[in-house]
Amino acid sequence: MHGLSRLGSGVNSTPSTSSSSSVSPPSSPRNRRSRNNKNSIITIGGGGRDGGSRSFLRGGGFGEMKLQNLVERLGFAVISTVYRRRGVLLLAPLLYISVMLLYMGTVGFDSVVSRNGGNGDDLTRPGSLYRSPQVFEKLWPFMEAESNGSSSNLIMNVWTLKPRQSWKPCIHQTASHAELPKSNGFLIIEANGGLNQQRLSICDAVAVAGLLNATLVIPMFHFNSVWRDSSKFGDIFDEDFFIYALRNRVEIVRGLPEAVLQHFDHNISNIVNLRLKAWSSPTYYLQKVVPTIVELGAVRVAPFSNRLAHAVPPNIQGLRCLSNFEALRFSESIRMLAAKMVDRMVKNSSKSGGKYISVHLRFEEDMVAFSCCVYDGGEEEKREMDIARERSWRGKFRRRGRIIRPGANRRDGKCPLTPLEVGMMLHGMGFDNNTFIYVAAGKIYQAEKYMAPLKQMFPHLETKDTLASPEELAPFKGHSSRLAALDYTVCLHSEVFVSTQGGNFPHFLVGHRRYLYEGHAKTIKPDKRKLALLFDNPNIRWKDFKRQLQDMLRHSDVKGVETRKPSGSLYTYPMPDCMCKHADGRNDNGNTTGLS
């Protein structure tokens, strides 16, 4: 006698009518279904009101239940299929996940622009709207009253944190002084992007050349459709000084020797272009690139950006330090005009000890367009932003399913600060209208409209266009990287630098300021999530507004001195790779005494 089948629910066998008296074993469920199709009943659950089972009669008619419409028929088909093929149940989780991924891919998490709070953008949440003009209208009388009654300007004593130990440059202790061995070949790189992305590529290329024991050819610059600057290396940087400063560390040449050029038919495109992984390790270069450069005599890497890991041996880090902070200085024409501009800012601010604030204001049209944030929300703004997005990022913002959530962007601190918001922030921190401010920026979006309130709050405001004459600026017009170099230098020597949007400009400038100012960045990096809440509250009191912004300033002071973490960039955090600790040698007046 056979036991019950594990596939069934205990079907009772009927004795055979044949001459055999034995009981037949249970038949296969598959065969059983086929034979009894006309009169079998499927019982699904037991959820009827009478506590009994709901039954569907299979066969030519639909028995006790008539299916009235397509939905009922579809439901019946699904239930029948699931029951017949119980293995389908195993696929249910995978089916659910697939549908969810398909849904998310269709809707998109990317921020068509939602201006009415649709598409999941809840504009009722605090910090979602641009209401800074209303906040300014309420708080301006208090700002004006405090400025008129101020007896001392915060600029004179803004950085109160006095570290027990200061940091001093010690590049020559980390860079190797050994005589250069015979070169393995030539390294040619192409730097892309704007001024500071080019700077990143150049410094990393020096480090890679040192790692490979290769001869570096002066980097070429890729013409970028956004920056639109045709400048070559020597137009922006001092080429002779660059080669001289690194002469004992890495061999650098202006071009390939004639013999090498002949080998490649005087066509640089014939030189193999290596496609390197981003953030490649030193081991990767030694194992993959060295054999190639030795075999071929020359290799190209184009584009060359972020192609070397942050963590490299100390001697290679030393090359990065030496390149960025010492060897890579601007060309003579840039240095001369930039020095005049700094001198003019110092003289203008003589009443405050020659100290001034510099602000990196990222409110150019392309930046506002890329951020997908809404400001006045008018039709003119929408039209201009759509045109700007299409001009610079063809089709990127018109992809099917792409959703932009301006409110969420603002709450997340991703919206560029307007000139009005920068002025309100500085006033709230305690800077009065006697403070001299230098604004580093490109062409401000609707400058006449948006710059007016900042000038109202801080009348002593300068830009490169007001600080230098049209004749002085003429050689630089049409060259965004050279103009950015002027801004960079004036910001570098300010008492306070204000970063408003991130990017490579503050990334490098903050590190350079730490290198110059004993490890302290002297930089205000505001918490833009908190600012979004403050600027979206027209009912805020001046006292509460000031308190929160002064806390933000103190936080910037504390975070001014930071050492590099394993995942951090040496160009922003030069300690301890490029700088060493020294015992505090300050006297009561803040002057350094007897430091080596």
Automatic annotation (TrEMBL):
Residue numbers spanned by region Disordered: 1-52
Species name: Coffea arabica
Keyword field: Carbohydrate metabolism, Fucose metabolism, Glycosyltransferase, Membrane, Transferase, Transmembrane, Transmembrane helix
UniProt keyword annotation of tRNA-binding present: no
Coiled coil: none
Superkingdom, natural source: Eukaryota
Similarity section: Belongs to the glycosyltransferase GT106 family.
Protein name in the entry: O-fucosyltransferase family protein
Entry's transmembrane regions: 88-109
Compositionally biased region (Low complexity): 8-25
Gene transcribed to yield this protein: LOC113712451
The keyword Membrane is annotated on this UniProt entry: yes
